[in-house]
Design goal:
By secondary structure, the protein is of the alpha/beta class. The protein has helices at residues 4-22, 52-63, 110-118, 120-125, 131-145, 208-213, 238-249, 276-281, 287-300, 306-313, 382-387, 389-393, 425-428, 438-456, 458-467, and strands at residues 34-35, 41-48, 69-73, 149-151, 154-161, 164-171, 174-185, 193-195, 214-216, 230-234, 254-259, 318-322, 326-331, 336-340, 343-347, 349-352, 356-358, 417-419. The chain has two domains: 4-192 and 358-460, 3-Layer(bba) Sandwich (FAD/NAD(P)-binding domain); 197-266 and 303-354, 3-Layer(bba) Sandwich (FAD/NAD(P)-binding domain), CATH 3.50.50.60. It is globular, with a radius of gyration of 25 Å.
Amino acid sequence: MMEDRDIGLKALENDVRRDLSRLNWPSPNWVLPGSVDGGEPALDVLIIGGGLCGQTAAFALMREGVRNFRIVERQPEGQEGPWATFARMDTLRSPKHLTGPELGVPSLTFRAWYEALNGQAAWDELYKIARLDWAHYLLWVRRVLALPIENRTEASDIRFSGGHVQATLRGPRGQEIVHARKVVLALGRDGSGAPRWPRFASFSPESEHSKARIFHSAGAIDFEALRAKSIGVLGAGASAFDNAGTALEAGAVEVALFARRTYLPQVNKSKWTSFPGFLHGFHSLDDARRWRFFTYIFSEQVPPPFESALRCEKFPGFKAHIGEPWTDLCADAKGVTVTSAKGTHRFDAVIVATGFDVDMMARPEVAAFREQATTWADRVSPAEALAHPEEARFPYLGDGFQLLEKTPGAHPGLARVHVFNWGCTMSHGALAGDIPGVAIGANRLAEAIVRDLFVEDADRHFSALLAHEEEELKATALYVPKDRR
């Protein structure tokens, strides 16, 4: 017998199919077939990354009638993005009514999914979205839309070849070389650079003792192994508190969190940006104002959610060392010694919650053309780039998230690569990193790709127009045969 939750979800999925049908989904493919040098067929789009941004971009492209694409994701199904992996918060930071992955289809919203499973009363009582509920919801959207995501498939060695982008894929199909007219880098927050490790004289993340006892908050951590242990945490952002809380809940007897600031940020300035005017209009500002907005937002930093702080504060073994930066870090066979500005501390293990370095051009996926692409360092004064080095490393993107050449006309293939992850933030705002902007971002991306695919084939489309012979009046007395016109 089907449970009420199953019945509710089946009914919702019927609503989704009906809504999509009314929107003429799936849209027929209109893109003319392409090939590599007249031979091997080419994809229209290769999407690298099947998490929130990748799957929403695919949905937007399919809705616009672009169907000849592949989506590859290196993680197994269910582990795309941070939600079921290194994100360790209890709930999302955003309010429960947020939308995005559904692209405006009401029956595809998180609320519709949650109410189908739990009822409207449960929705009314819900405070914020549980992190794993969000992960399950995204998988449901993927399934009900039949998005063809290829898990455990990694893309590398992206380069330009014969007017196309070439990439090497490795996955269940084996190794293959594919060509595409467009590539979308939907690599997630970590795909904009790499986990940031602190630099201390006695610390190397590659040493045997460090690997056994010093963990990055973005990596895999066996929290059960931390039961009855003492843990040091470096950092005071959301991930620091979330990892500290997870360790305490797993049974750690002591968790000491350290921050160099004398007090934590108190206001989330980035939250202010989540309104339509900013999300739609930011990318149309001149460089100076875009630079001013986000260098200010990033310099203010983001406080941890108060829920994350309260999660830790309820444990007597938690202590926050505010205004106590670390000066050295050394792991040995028995533990970890932390030297701070105020003394020495000894822990069984340490969690480094220092986020990600943003350096899109250092990613291995773009190694073949990293020197050719424009970054924000090329658009601001040397003094500004020196004052804001991380912001200066962001790629400087065009109106459709495409990479731009340092020298116009020298490397036109760069415009075939679209950056749809956190790396787009300095150019477009947080349209591919934060949930509230992802629908605007995916629609903008799809519109740009559709535009480019049509313009590139405009002459072929004109030939198709000339050949179009659907005779409207054939069934009427007004019909005139072609040979008499």
